[in-house]
Fold each of these.
Amino acid sequence: MLYRSKIVGMGMYLPENVVTNHDLEQLMDTSDAWIVERTGIRERRFFTEGKDTTATMAAEASRMALDRAGLKAQEIDAIVFATLSPDYYFPGSGVLLMRELGIVGIPAFDLRQQCAGFVYALSLADAYIRLGHYKNVLIACSEIQSNLLELSTRGRNMAVIFGDGAAAVVLTRHQQEGLGVISTHLHADGTYAEELYMAHPGCRRKVRITPQMLEDGSMLPYMNGNAVFKHAIVRFMEVIYEALEANGLQVEDLDMVIPHQANLRISKYIQEQLQLPDEKMYNNIQWVGNTTAASIPLAMCEAWEKGLLRPGMLVCTPAFGSGFVWGSALIRM
Ligand SMILES: CC(C)(COP(=O)(O)OP(=O)(O)OC[C@H]1O[C@@H](n2cnc3c(N)ncnc32)[C@H](O)[C@@H]1OP(=O)(O)O)[C@@H](O)C(=O)NCCC(=O)NCCS
């Protein structure tokens, strides 16, 4: 029996608290002009404590995706949850999402693939559906990153980039070759793990959190922006061409590229290299910042809501992030 997967519902949730570059100017030595020029970001959302958690945001997005798919939560056979910012150190947020949705008993996977989280989640869900194990899989990607950032001049290189948000996708089984998830391509290289990482509180030391860590900033995430940028642009291009070549396709066959929203300059570079017209590239980092695992499904959902993603369109979703991990998916909508 031939089994394939396709997207039948997408949903998203953005916290209500909008934080503009001008708001950040009040907190650190930065400027709207610097942020817009280097990243393209104009505003992002920060969660509201007591209202939003990584799991509740995922639940909001999931309910919307399930509703649009015409499915009840009880019809989901498995959950794949991608985040670098789970509610708890353990257990993962997958089980919390199940609880929010009122379902018990199905498996929940938690993925820690950072900015490539959605592509990895899609690949895993697609593989299970192809094997015939599951019919409907819910992919939820949700991040609360604003409380990992230090909103000060010391933390500014990361503070201006990242935002909070969630998105969900329902994948379902079908039997038509060439429709839905065509292929996924995943990679990783731990050589550069410390170029974009958060060391503490890790499990390497007997005492996981010390006053010194709080003081010296070593509990903040660290990013070597230049190194990330250089690797990202190479890997993004490689993995787009890999997806096309694996399927005997050309750049001209693509109807839309929705890259991980790392930085608008990275997206512009990809667009220029592929010589894509504006209508074949979708970006929303300007309004939501870099939302890590949630960024691709958030952009996809927004594009779909605007009527820009239509049935039959061929979409490529390349991603790159901390690890380094990278990958792409080719999807026929
Ligand atoms: C982070 C990034 C925007 C920085 O841009 P850049 O052009 O590389 O800038 P640099 O880091 O070289 O810093 C240039 C100067 O701006 C300063 N600067 C850094 N952050 C700043 C901020 N928020 N506001 C104002 N100035 C800032 C630096 O201190 C530096 O000053 P100096 O020249 O006096 O030392 C860029 O490297 C980038 O986008 N990298 C990829 C990030 C990414 O995609 N991360 C997610 C991975 S999924």
Amino acid sequence: MSAFDIYCELDGALDGSVSCDERMSRHATFHIGGPASLFIECASMADLTLVMSVLEKHSMPWSIIGKGSNLLISDAGCRSAIITLGKEFKKSAFVDTTLVAGAGIALSSIVQEAFKLGYSGFEFAVGIPGTLGGALFMNAGTRTEWVGSVVEAITLYSPEEGLVRRRGEEIPWSYRKSGIMRGEIILEAELSMKPGDIGSIRAKMEASLSRRKKSQPLSFPSAGSVFKNPPDESAGKLIESVGLKGYRCGGAQISEMHANFIVNTGNAKAQDVVDLIVLARNRVKEVYGIELQPEVQFLGF
Ligand SMILES: Cc1cc2nc3c(=O)[nH]c(=O)nc-3n(C[C@H](O)[C@H](O)[C@H](O)COP(=O)(O)OP(=O)(O)OC[C@H]3O[C@@H](n4cnc5c(N)ncnc54)[C@H](O)[C@@H]3O)c2cc1C
């Protein structure tokens, strides 16, 4: 069964959309990546249920993505279906001080909503691109604050169990790790908001944004920090100290501003980025004996 046959089965049957040979560079903040056999936007739970049954019937592998802000997608693309969450998964509503938000919603919208209503607890997330689903999977945040700590519960789709609701405290959140398994799709989260002082919320958000502007190469396409910070160390400082700041491979460069960012200077290939990742890892291992662990997620390799 070819991807085109699956396309024909889904086309016209979804509220969302399906396409073949979709250029994945359009769906990743790195602006890198070859075509995906199928790209499917599920606009509703009914879409997702149909898509899952059709993909399973045809044994087509799949991956879920959000805004692609933590992804390196291979130059060859993905011989699989790439799923993303649309319309129904971009809604949110307050129930008292709990924000019930769809996983497809942009994290920035949640930050803004919380700020407007004077809720604190989400200021750390200002400036993190991506969706709520991606942020939950990655447990996105800073070194000291992360999204998992405000989660009351998550609803996810598991191919084996169907819809599952997990309470926040059952999930083993840790630095850039949620314990949510690959193959599970986060659909919705209940987030706890604390009433706060609007002046302090604004001050914390402004300080965080100004730190980002000063330290991150925001004018180039990237996927944010490439490596996780090792305990009590900074991946960026380690890479800088082995002399790799500004180093280039093809169109990719270890940022001159922040050595834990690799930037696409215009025409980078995924392979250029991989070469820099391997180089930085090996050099830091040789000099310090520390094995840097990638934070960026690889798709299609
Ligand atoms: C300029 C810049 C700055 C950044 N700053 C930060 C920062 O300060 N802190 C930080 O933690 N990150 C940061 N990031 C990285 C990135 O924005 C976060 O990891 C973000 O949460 C990823 O969300 P996304 O929707 O783009 O996910 P994607 O990149 O699309 O996916 C990331 C992972 O999440 C999985 N995923 C996505 N959606 C779902 C879902 N619904 N269910 C299950 N799994 C899912 C994907 O399969 C993939 O493995 C930065 C990135 C950039 C480009």
